[in-house]
Amino acid sequence: MFIDIADIFIKSGDGGDGAISFRREKYVSHGGPDGGDGGRGGDIIFVVDPSMTTLLNFKYKRKHEAGRGENGGKNKCYGKDAEDLIIPVPLGTVIKDKESGKIISDLSSVDDTYIVLKGGKGGKGNTKFATPTRQAPDFAEPGMPGEERHVTLELKLLADVGLLGFPNVGKSTLLSKVSKAQPKIANYHFTTLEPNLGVVAMPGINPFVIADIPGIIEGASEGVGLGIQFLRHIERTRLLLHIVDVSGIEGRNPVEDFIKINEELKKYKLDLTDRPQIVVMNKLDLLYDKSYLDEFRKEIEGLGYSEIYAISAATGEGVAEVMKACAEKLQTIPVIETIYDVEDFYIPEIKQFTYDVEIDEEGVFVVSGSFVDRLLNAVDIHNPSHLRYFHKVLGNKGVLDRLKEMGIEDGDFIRLNDFEFEYYA
């Protein structure tokens, strides 16, 4: 099954907690603190796996979490860092923030690797809180929480040549003739329900990758038929091989079909109409009036297309010549560099521990924010030594100065989450 879009949840690992520990040695009556720091949580890292061609794995596993760092230990032992979680994806995968739709990373090279979420930092052990006046701190710092995000994975196949055309014009038959790919082939529309890739390796030409895109019909750019699901795969092809059924057995006008397909490309993305195209008149074996080839060629040349070939994918007539033309054309076409606007990219918020101060309707000064959560997690408010450290941090971080600016007076109450106390300068 071919899956080219997947929504998943990712979370990096939490940092391990710092340890509260004191030396216990014979003949050392007052051993100092020796609690070690916690280990770092695991990162979430996406890497390109060239052997993958679909996002099918993510259909069954949608939640991906990295491990937590180990807690610190005694004797100043640091907790072990958690293993990073490596998530392999196919070449050409675009990672987007699901909420905003903005791009986090575009993995379009074989060796691409991207750290999407960093693991939480390990907390400091009580050794780090020792000072000349606080020689036996009995508190430590908790580990930093990991990050989490819902992301969308969008696969845009990377192929040199894209087979383009209405349903049932012979694209899959051509792919099966020139490569070892085995697409489903039958005489009805939309036989191909998913893109197929094949490698063209013929004597005398440089190998290249060719993609058979499901048939595009009029209105595909607005969601008609199957085309809109797969038009994105054409974006990165350097050359388009536009297949047209000139046999007339289905009662269609080949020139009108050619024009309609190019109109859909233009509606989907304007620059796709500038992509080099080789036009292929297919099903020669079913064409009764061969003089129509000259008529078709003349009309297509009038539209600005000069490279036009006649083939029968079914019998193989003319196929080698077209593949040779593709290989030669590719030598002159640079690799497609996808250009994004700055606004297209997701910019993560810088993780800062901040606080807000406001006065509620009862006149209580309420301090809130991530800084408060982290501070309260690190101390025991019922322990006098912890409270001394707590007040010192409030002073060092400017909270007390902010309260003074807001007019706090002795006897006023301060609330941090569920902890409320009276203020005295």
TrEMBL record:
GO terms for biological process, alphabetical: ribosome biogenesis
Domain OCT: 345-425
Name under which the protein is recorded: GTPase Obg
Gene coding for it: obg
Subcellular location: Cytoplasm
Limits of the OBG-type G domain: 159-331
Record CDD domains: Obg
Keywords: Cytoplasm, GTP-binding, Hydrolase, Magnesium, Metal-binding, Nucleotide-binding
Molecular function GO labels: GTP binding; GTPase activity; magnesium ion binding
EC numbers for this chain: 3.6.5.-
